[in-house]
Amino acid sequence: MNEIKEYDENNNLTHYRNSDGYEVWREYDEKGNEIHYRNSDGFEWWREFNENNNEIHFRNSKGYEEWDDSQY
Question: How far apart are CA 71 and CA 12, in angstroms?
Fold first, then answer.
């Protein structure tokens, strides 16, 4: 199986594609936290972090959402 992998300047994987046509895209914040994920099947998720680098919010394209108020 052939794979294509692309990385950003911080060596974070930003794009993946295999020979079956499946793809994944990822975005990162300035601290290197993965904040957005999307795949070719249409699934996505988003994460937010506070100033201490703790995850405080998560949501996905299926309607799931979670807040961590203890991290504020």
Answer: 25
Q: Are 40 and 47 in contact (CB under 8 A)?
A: no
Query: CA 8, CA 4: separation in Å to the nearest integer?
Result: 14
- Domain span at residue 54? 3-71
Q: Is the pTM of this model over 0.85?
A: yes
Q: What is the pLDDT of residues 53-72, one digit of tens each?
A: 999 999 999 999 999 977 55
The C-alpha atoms of residue 33 and residue 44 are separated, in whole angstroms, by 16
Residue 10 backbone dihedrals phi, psi, to 5 degrees: -100, 15
Q: How many structural domains is the chain composed of? A: 1
According to DSSP, residue 68 is labeled -
